Amino acid sequence: MKELQTNTIYLIGIGGIGMSALARYFKQQGKEVSGYDRTETPLTRQLAAEGMNIHYTDDPAYVPCDAGLVIYTPAIPETNRELQYCMEGEFTVMKRAEVLGLITDDYYTIAIAGTHGKTSISSMTAHMMHHSGHEATALIGGIMNNYDTNMLYASKSKYLIAEADEYDRSFLKLHPKVAVVSTVSADHLDIYGSLENMKESFSRFVQQTDENGLVIIHEDVLGQIETPSNALVYGQGKEASLRIKDVRVVEHHYHFLLESSKGNIDIRMLVPGMHNIENATAAAAVCLHAGMDLKEIKAGLESYRGVKRRFEFVLDDTEGIIFIDDYAHHPDEIEACISTARKLYPEKKICGVFQPHLFTRTRDFADGFARTLEMLDELILLEIYPAREEPIPGVDAKMLLDMITIANKSICSKEDLPDMIKARKPDVLLTMGAGDIDRLLIPIKEKLITA
What is the pLDDT of residues 182-195, one digit of tens each? Predict the structure, then answer.
């Protein structure tokens, strides 16, 4: 733990959603925090406003000579000059996952894992605990709309809520008291190679849970990974001890009955979708374990306003247009997003804009992307966002477009997208992707609301 005792911390890639949460955590502890990122964003500007020194030039001269800990993420290429300088120098250099593992060792850690749903479950849990006065420190993989931040700090609480990221097997650095597994489906095959290897890693994660703690799993995960016999199961089926019943949509809001051993409660959600009802049930299981009662859980869930880029309304029937943005970048997530929009607006035509994320993911899940994107009435594809990857010959937006059978489909540049959308005048517009498509939200919104 000596690595965390230093007063000066430097983050390479400070603008990432996970890194920025760490930066805010250390800043709250009174440490000097600074860092590098490739481009300026609203998030990095906010970090700077909170007192962190951030620059955007890859130059080792900016690295504080007294930095006691340098943190980086796998998203930083090995060619980064600052990272090379720190690796070759006298600095203590650690990956984000390693640092998170050290932090969680000091807390009663609640680790939320799963191919999908981590951010929603984590933020729901954090909000319910905060709203009820059961404080917890929380490091979240998205900006919570209730608090406009991705980090909540509770200096006197024993609880820490953290996302257990399966990418690069990062979650195996954690040894939580409570572990949640929401889903196990194929992803990150560039790391794992196969779904079976993913399942093995999820099993190892669950096995690292404290023997006196609690494992909470979705009913669909049963049989996929090794789980303890006393695991708490949630879902809609007979295996679930925390059960979802009577799901209905009333005036564009999802309602459901939550059945538990402590009683039943009817809940009206502000965030839509069956997937969010399942996420809410997982979060409720954590909060029941933490000592909250059903009234507190109901009040927390009914006041939870979601996370930015998780089925976020950019325009809510403004000028007759509904504009929703979502982080969906996997076929399962796209299906959930489009299905939710269909449920809310069954009479309206839906136009979707999708920016594929990573060449390997596009290649590995091309059939799934084609199948789910065909659920749209109209599709506009952007070129693949490469992130950390080099191009793969033959893997591009045209490859995906050719696999999709709907008639109204096209490829568009980011520069031309706002004008194209304005010309199409969609009833419901969905923008989806994990790249930089979010930077187009304001230009699209401005085009749609101007005559």
Answer: 999 878 877 888 88
Fold of 312-449: Protein-Tyrosine Phosphatase; Chain A (3.90.190)
Q: Report phi then psi at 313, rounded to 5.
A: -80, 115
CB 179, CB 205: distance < 8 Å: yes
CA distance 422 to 444: 8
Q: Vertex 272, ends 216 and 422: CA angle to 5°?
A: 135
- State whether residue 86 is helix, strand or coil: helix
For residues 208 and 115, give the distance between their C-alpha atoms in angstroms, rounded to a whole number: 18
Q: What pTM, to 2 d.p., does this model score?
A: 0.88
Separation of alpha carbons 103 and 124, rounded Å: 21
The tens digit of pLDDT for each residue in 398-417 reads: 999 999 999 999 999 999 99
Instruction: Assign domain 107-302 to a CATH class.
Output: alpha beta
Which CATH architecture best describes the domain 2-94? 3-Layer(aba) Sandwich (3.40)
Encode 317-340: b = buried (16+ Cβ within 10 Å), e = exposed. Answer: eeeebbbbbbbbbbbbbbbbbbeb
